[in-house]
Fold each of these.
Amino acid sequence: MHSLTEQNYIQQLSIDCVIFGYENQQLKVLISTLKFKGDFQVLPSGFIYQGEDVDEAARRILEDRTSIKDTYLEQFHVFGKADRSNRAFLDRLIELNPDLVILHQQQRQQYEWFTRRFVSIGYYALVDMAKVIPQKHEIDQSITWYDVRQLPILAMDHNEIVQKAIDTLRLTLDQRLSAFSLLPESFTMKDVQEVYEAIYDKPFARNNFQKKILDMNVLERLEKKFTGAANKAPYLYRYIK
Amino acid sequence: MHSLTEQNYIQQLSIDCVIFGYENQQLKVLISTLKFKGDFQVLPSGFIYQGEDVDEAARRILEDRTSIKDTYLEQFHVFGKADRSNRAFLDRLIELNPDLVILHQQQRQQYEWFTRRFVSIGYYALVDMAKVIPQKHEIDQSITWYDVRQLPILAMDHNEIVQKAIDTLRLTLDQRLSAFSLLPESFTMKDVQEVYEAIYDKPFARNNFQKKILDMNVLERLEKKFTGAANKAPYLYRYIK
DNA sequence: ATTTATTGTCTATTTTTTAGACAATAATAA
DNA sequence: TTATTATTGTCTAAAAAATAGACAATAAAT
């Protein structure tokens, strides 16, 4: 990794990613926990290289954490308050981790660079959790999936950012047909319904839900899925286009 | 105005404003024409001061050009391609205006600053054109309202930006109840319908349109408007809340 | 008083959404 | 082999919403 103080990044502009997954009827968000004393938890974030599209940068950050290349990813809001800064967060981190005392000139510069006011572009991604390969050798942070209803307190305004991402997801889900990105290649109609129920945190009527989804004309019906349960086997479906 | 090369602005981050107005059944956009040889037309743009919210900056830019303080203003998209730069635009401008030869050190620096890659945050505003007071002493640019269907070719990706703003406006108009911001304090139902027709570029059925708007429960009915026409006088309405 | 153009609103029709019902079926139990 | 059970897929009925058609009210001109 290059030095942050070099001019390879756009200054004072960052990307925060709200990476959604789905498991056990729960909508999840990927959270980074910093490996320092104190519970410092943040959204996966990063900066934009000079020669890089902002969208590319978001995709790179997503791939860095999940190994996933092609999935639903979309910009949803810019967080631009004048007091948006890592300073309070980093000062607290240094306070709880005295071994991190800043001595060297370069560390001082990094600290200054990192604690300036930042404008952040929020992106949200929808991924198939089963395809996520957490990076093995993350030095300073580890990642965990949290149920969106039980998020920990995150650094800075990251809880707000997640909330805004959920709001946007709910408003655009049907238009963008993005729910299927949370599921594996093939799935049952019940799976789709449970994804919707997790996202909107409310139940849907099965008969009408099935009609609505089929009327979208984006699902191909595959073979039946025999689960061993003592009842009619559901069909599997696949998202097309 | 401070020097651009000073650190008072966030570097490589700009705001482009799509300022919508409405007149004569036409949806209009405010365009700046630079006072140089060659037709250089751009969206009203600006930068963000270090101590300023991004939203504040957008509002400042809007007020600078229109004198309007309180009106509908909303962020809608970030334009972040790696090749987004004023360089081609500025080179062409210098080419056509040889008197602008860059000699001084400071001019050189300004040129470098201004022609770097920029990430731009798009905002759109909806204003009552009658309330707009164009700035009298604009040195290097003048503003004009254009029908959105007859926009000139704008610099950089500004035509794309306008299109994206229109798309967003159409998608969110009913939710945000923002159409009324294009009209004066009081207006007839016909005015509202014509605003909608200008925005969506399609006709609406009068009877059902009136019902839909009244069902929003955001209009107060005022006295009648006697136009002198030989027919029933329409009621005036006022947007509340 | 009659005519004209437009407005406000009502009702009928069509379409869409929601609710209710039931046959099909995969395994299990009798 | 034949009920039983739980769930799925789909149909129809009912309710709600959107669209289309109709008409009385009315402000000014004839």
Amino acid sequence: MKHFTMHFSEIKGDCRFNGTLATDRAGRLYDSRFRQAIRSARRPLSERETRAVEALTALRITARLTRQLMDRWAEKHGLSEGRLHVLFRLASAPDHQLPLGELADQLEVTPRNITGLIDHLERDGLVERIDDPADRRLTYARLTAAGGRRIDGMRAQGLEWQLKIAAGLSTEELDQLRHACLQLIENMTGKSVTEKSA
Amino acid sequence: MKHFTMHFSEIKGDCRFNGTLATDRAGRLYDSRFRQAIRSARRPLSERETRAVEALTALRITARLTRQLMDRWAEKHGLSEGRLHVLFRLASAPDHQLPLGELADQLEVTPRNITGLIDHLERDGLVERIDDPADRRLTYARLTAAGGRRIDGMRAQGLEWQLKIAAGLSTEELDQLRHACLQLIENMTGKSVTEKSA
DNA sequence: GATACATAGTGAAGCACTTCACTATGCACT
DNA sequence: AGTGCATAGTGAAGTGCTTCACTATGTATC
């Protein structure tokens, strides 16, 4: 059993943040060092610009940290980020399997690359290739029992950690965060709302 | 002049998002496909868990997209992510220079690595090495005029893009986003507030 | 059956970064 | 002067990923 207990504190160890946290009058956190730097810049920013830059900078730092965290986490479980994504994708696919091409497409990875990822995962016994008898051009990648166990353990642990990371935020604040992120995604991708009021 | 105008739409081109955006009763965006997947999972999540996971998943996707964006952006300007960070760091340092060791420390990069980054930047004429006559063990990396110009152009463009990406969010929402991100950072790093009410 | 297309796999090269083990120089302290 | 520490640089290997150009197999179309 490879899933020895791993504690969050263990992995957050070398997550560093260079700014200086402070609380503003509204009770919200801000980075006082960064705000100072913005204020003393040659070209001072407008109010709107300041808000946007502060928010997006905080977001970028958060992004970097979560990425580091996930990277180390995957590594501790013998996975790279790409292989982890493959596993997660397969875990949420019907029958835990997908044709390689479709997998590549969903993961936004070149076909050349998916071969290598699956090769590696197959070597590790987490995934197996299955031929499609109906269309013999197709090869499915399917989670093995071991792969399923691995991903289940990681999901449980991931859930636990996410709760710890989200500590201190009300459910209201979490909803706001979700909304803001999705709005940013909408702006970045050009994709827009297709459904309403569910 | 290398800074030919580059449009946001040009680079956001291949930013994809696999989910399905929808608006909930509170007027907030959510990913209906993802919510569906959570609901039909074998082990259903509690309300709190659902909120946390939805928010952090949206955050991760945002993180991935911004990263892609920055990567491509840096590349278009002939930089890697690491070299871009070096340049930004130097730009905000006094006299646009820093000892290599300190630079490595602030960027959380090994000393071995900083050598290569500076080598490359020096080859490109964006940074130069300066010996410290006072302590001849020290070498400073200093932004050249060309480097300064490059980074100034990128800053202007970065500001412009950030405003576009933040479109549709009120300043209130941006402040909430900043707060939430910093709270997450606090939880991930263990660093806590040192100043108050500024 | 010939042709065109789709799917998967291969080999080789390159990039950015990491780690490890090592050298060379210079400061500082005794 | 000698010892120890700090700073920077080097070489070599490895990882994860990307791209390009190519082969092999199988399906579909005419």
